[in-house]
Amino acid sequence: IQDARKFVAGAQYMGDDMYKGGFGYDRDTKRAYTDLLNTYYSAEAMKTTASVEDTRPPTEKKVDIDWNETVKFIEKMQNKPESGDQAGGFFYNPKDPKAGTSTNQAGVVIFRSYGSITYAGMLALIHANVGRDDVRVRSAFEWAAKHWSLDENPGMGAQGIYFFYNVLAKCLKAYGQDLVPVKDKDPINWKAEAARKLVSVQKIDDKPGQGYWKNANNSYWEGNAVLVTAYALRALELVAK
Questions:
Q1: DSSP secondary-structure letter at 111?
Q2: Rounded CA gap, 85 and 112, in Å?
Q3: Which of 10, 41, 169, 183 could be a cystine partner for 238, CB 3.0 to 4.6 Å?
Q4: Contact at 8 Å (CB) between 58 and 76?
Q5: Would you say 212 and 202 are in contact if contact means Cβ atoms under 8 Å apart?
Q6: How many other CB atoms sit within 10 Å of the CB of residue 157?
Q7: Are 197 and 188 in contact (CB under 8 A)?
Q8: Rounded CA gap, 92 and 167, in Å?
Q9: Using an 8 Å Cβ cutoff, are 122 and 100 in contact?
Q10: What is the pLDDT of residues 146-190, one digit of tens each?
Q11: Which of 129, 46, 40 is nearest to 90 (CA)?
């Protein structure tokens, strides 16, 4: 794990451009590229393994990422108030929104926010010790509440919906609020709703009686039952606690 932390920390891109502070592919080539998904995964890995640094030999320098630069990169992927109903949500990277674009009242093209990356961005901020009352975290939660749905990955439809369930559960668990305010409805207990949804979409193989999850939309490899079942089980584990 200590070696893995060295690898992740070494992958942080620190070039003097829009990608600075984030994480992406091509670690060895130092290509100018990072995105919010890889940055979320890296922040989560470094946060959840931080305690192993206490057992690192005293002759070795302790390893960590530059959290301040990580937060600066995450901020760049969050839509600001001038983005209208997209404000508070997140997009994928500075050039590729994944969920498309729209034009605000001032005629400026903005990247659309979408569900799974908004929860990923919000959770990455939490991992970076940004408080739940910070405007960046609070506005992300407000976007998620405004666009609440478990029937789709908001802004992406069926694409990546099981990753969406997985990161939603991890994020809201870390955020520490069981009730989500939904417009024109009573607040929703996200744990109960997520549990019901995941159980309702489980598939059962009649012959061996095995239960699994699989997405008919194969984007992001969600046609792979092993991957998707892992996403679902992790989400169920979190809602049961």
A1: E
A2: 9
A3: 169
A4: no
A5: yes
A6: 14
A7: no
A8: 15
A9: no
A10: 999 999 999 999 999 999 999 999 999 999 999 999 988 899 999
A11: 40
- pLDDT tens per residue across span 13-72: 999 999 999 999 877 777 889 999 999 999 999 999 999 999 999 999 999 999 999 999
Give the pair of three-digit tokens for residue 93: 């990277």
Per-residue model confidence as pLDDT tens digits over 48-65: 999 999 999 999 999 999
Q: What distance in Å separates the CA atoms of residue 73 and residue 36, rounded to the nearest whole number?
A: 8
- State the chain's maximal CA–CA distance in angstroms: 60
Euclidean distance between CA atoms 175 and 123, whole angstroms: 8
- Assess contact for 11 and 23: CB atoms under 8 A: yes
Q: How far apart are CA 241 and CA 236, in angstroms?
A: 9
Question: What Rg do the C-alpha atoms of the chain give, in angstroms?
Answer: 19
Helix/strand/coil for 159: coil
pLDDT of residue 104: 79
Strands 109-111 and 179-180: unpaired
**Residue 181 contacts residue 145 (beta carbons within 8 Å):** yes
Neighbouring C-alpha atoms within 13 Å toward the C-beta of 85: 8
CA distance 194 to 169: 8
Please, are residues 132 and 175 in contact by the beta-carbon 8 Å criterion? yes
Q: Which of 13, 161, 191 is nearest to 94 (CA)?
A: 13
DSSP reduced 3-state for 109: strand
b/e for 91-105, b at 16 or more Cβ within 10 A? bbbbeebbbeebeee
